[in-house]
């Protein structure tokens, strides 16, 4: 753990949909934050020496038998606390106040009146639009606290006790719909808890570089480089830390989009000057995927084959250099990956979360991994990675790129992955990307997976003849960090052009459909 990560702000997760979002907002205030499960014992929480605690929302009601409670002793430890929604109610209960179902439910935009000479609401308008999502309310604030906000349905919508450093709000300051939300969080962090902001890109880079040096020592390092944002920034960090010990390895697994290999081999190398090796592993991946249709199985196979490829590449690199310089005979001990916090969380590695899907670089790793992993970005969100990349001078064309998953088109063919199907999907994807770029929409959307429903056929008519082809799904999404997403309302003219071109130009496809599902309940990728 680095010095900047000491004394984190811990978000205690009571089963909120978006506990991660709270941590992200805290980091936007330049303070390091992590999520911990609500049932972590107080001693364990306090052993992390938190600078403050934020209690998240949650689906339960505090007065119900078996409802999640604050760990015993947590509130008494003298650590500043902010309760949000369920966390506010749980805190109320623990401090001797009262929570009940009043019949006054509030969902969505709600008008609140706040006390502006309070710690949380100073320097803000007295009338605020806040985002509510609750059916229970605090009916009596705990003794010693001052009520600092109310709404029509909720007389006790916030309270604080600056002496004990406990604060709470019924609404959700972490969502953008709460107009002063970020200010409220910052007031809590700075004035309430007295924390200075030190989690800035410059500081983070210094610490990560130092951490990489300490971890890898003199050893040789390879970096799994996709040309995407995360691995490019990870490579730039490692290059800065131990430049001449590093070789980047790009795997062409046959699941890439049109033009991708050339882009990495020429543009990326030209822009960064890294030492790059490309491995052609198309047959290896396609053979391993033959006959497989289950998404998790496909992901695990891809994860395994990636690692087998890196192992072979490491052996080749060492063999190629042996004799050149005696020091180079060290086998490669370290593998750098551009793993991010959301990859870890979704793969079930986060605090008390379910496995949604095994990301190839986390849950999809084989058990007999021969490398030590170097993952400098493992605790970071995408926007933080972009900020660090810019600070490091990574070109904007790379830093601003839309994400593309490591398993590539393999998880965008619903059904078995074959060379023919890849050909079809690659052609459709190239058209969609071309038209979105031409329409100037690249910065508006987070990414737009193009998906081939390979086991579905529908009847069409083309050139007076009957066709029986496959549908292509367009999945344009808007997102801040891929943890949640909304479907992007693309202009009809653009959709029309994409649809016409795909059905005209791509054999096998006679229908284009649009995915209008947010995340949740859908994920961004179909598998
Ligand atoms: N074709 C590839 N060759 C080598 N490594 C890869 C390849 N695809 C993915 N990886 C590795 O897996 C990691 C995770 O992939 P992921 O797509 O999340 O990140 P990225 O490609 O670096 O960035 P982005 O999210 O912008 O696409 C990468 O950071 C990289 O280390
Ligand atoms: O490198 C990756 N390896 C994977 O296995 C993987 N699965 C999903 N993604 C990307 O992660 C983000 C969230 O995707 P989902 O909503 O589908 O989980 C989106 O940006 C996805 O493109 C992956 N990236
Ligand atoms: N979003 C929440 O945290 C809800 C808390 C509690 N379940 C209520 O309805 O009031
Ligand atoms: Mg990628």
UniProtKB/TrEMBL annotation:
Residues 199-401 form the GMPS ATP-PPase domain. GO terms for cellular component: cytosol. It comes from Kytococcus aerolatus. This is GMP synthase [glutamine-hydrolyzing]. ATP binds at residues 226-232. Homodimer. InterPro entries: Class_I_gatase-like, GATASE, GMP_synth_C, GMP_synth_GATase, GMP_synthase, GMPS_ATP_PPase_dom, Rossmann-like_a/b/a_fold. The active site is at 85 (nucleophile), 172, 174. Its EC number is 6.3.5.2. Keywords: ATP-binding, Glutamine amidotransferase, GMP biosynthesis, Ligase, Nucleotide-binding, Purine biosynthesis. Transmembrane segments: none annotated. Pathway: Purine metabolism; GMP biosynthesis; GMP from XMP (L-Gln route): step 1/1. One of its GO terms (molecular function) is ATP binding. It catalyses: XMP + L-glutamine + ATP + H2O = GMP + L-glutamate + AMP + diphosphate + 2 H(+). The gene is guaA. Catalyzes the synthesis of GMP from XMP.
């Amino acid at each position: 753990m680095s010095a900047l990560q000491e004394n984190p702000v811990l978000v205690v997760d009571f089963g909120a949909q978006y506990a991660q979002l709270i941590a992200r907002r805290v980091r936007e205030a330049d303070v390091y934050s992590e999520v911990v499960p609500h049932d972590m014992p107080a001693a364990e929480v306090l052993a992390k020496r938190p600078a403050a605690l934020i209690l998240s929302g949650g689906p339960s009601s505090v007065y119900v038998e078996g409802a999640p409670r604050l760990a015993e002793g947590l509130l008494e430890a003298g650590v500043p606390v902010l309760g949000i929604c369920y966390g506010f109610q749980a805190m109320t209960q623990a401090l001797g106040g009262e929570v009940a179902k009043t019949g006054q439910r509030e969902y969505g935009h709600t008008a609140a009146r706040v006390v502006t000479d309070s710690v949380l609401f100073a320097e803000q308008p007295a009338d605020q639009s806040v985002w509510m999502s609750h059916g229970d309310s605090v009916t009596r604030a705990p003794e010693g606290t001052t009520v600092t906000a109310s709404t029509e349905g909720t007389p006790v919508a916030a309270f604080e006790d600056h002496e004990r450093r406990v604060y709470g709000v019924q609404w959700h300051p972490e969502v953008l719909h709460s107009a002063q939300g970020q200010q409220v969080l910052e007031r809590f962090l700075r004035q309430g808890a007295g924390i200075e902001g030190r989690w800035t890109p410059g500081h983070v880079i210094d610490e990560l570089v130092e951490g990489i040096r300490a971890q890898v020592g003199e050893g040789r390092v390879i970096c799994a480089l996709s040309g995407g944002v995360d691995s490019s920034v990870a490579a730039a960090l490692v290059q800065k830390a131990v430049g001449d010990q590093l070789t980047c390895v790009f795997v062409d697994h046959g699941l890439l989009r049109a033009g991708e290999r050339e882009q990495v081999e020429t543009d990326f190398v030209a822009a960064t000057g890294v030492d790059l090796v490309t491995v052609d592993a198309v047959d290896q991946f396609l053979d391993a995927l033959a006959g497989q249709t289950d998404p998790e199985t496909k992901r695990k196979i891809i994860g395994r084959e990636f690692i087998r490829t890196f192992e072979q590449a490491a052996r080749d690199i060492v063999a190629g250099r042996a004799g050149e310089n005696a020091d180079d005979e060290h086998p490669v001990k370290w593998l750098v990956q551009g793993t991010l916090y959301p990859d870890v969380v979704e793969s079930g590695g986060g605090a008390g979360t379910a496995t949604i899907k095994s990301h190839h670089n986390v849950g999809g790793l084989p058990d007999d991994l021969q490398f030590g992993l170097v993952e400098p970005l493992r605790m970071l969100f995408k926007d933080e990675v972009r900020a660090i990349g810019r600070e490091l001078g990574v070109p904007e064309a790379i830093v601003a790129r839309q994400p593309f998953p490591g398993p590539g088109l393999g998880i965008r063919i619903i059904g078995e992955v074959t060379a023919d199907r890849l050909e079809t999907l690659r052609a459709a994807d190239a058209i969609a990307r071309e038209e979105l770029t031409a329409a100037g929409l690249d910065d508006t959307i987070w990414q737009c997976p193009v998906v081939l429903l390979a086991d579905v056929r529908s009847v069409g008519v083309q050139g007076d003849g009957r066709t029986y082809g496959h549908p292509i799904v367009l999945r344009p999404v808007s997102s801040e960090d891929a943890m949640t997403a909304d479907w992007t309302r693309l202009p009809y003219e653009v959709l029309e052009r994409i649809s016409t071109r795909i059905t005209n130009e791509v054999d096998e496809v006679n229908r284009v459909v649009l995915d209008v599902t947010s995340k949740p309940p859908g994920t961004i990728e179909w598998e």
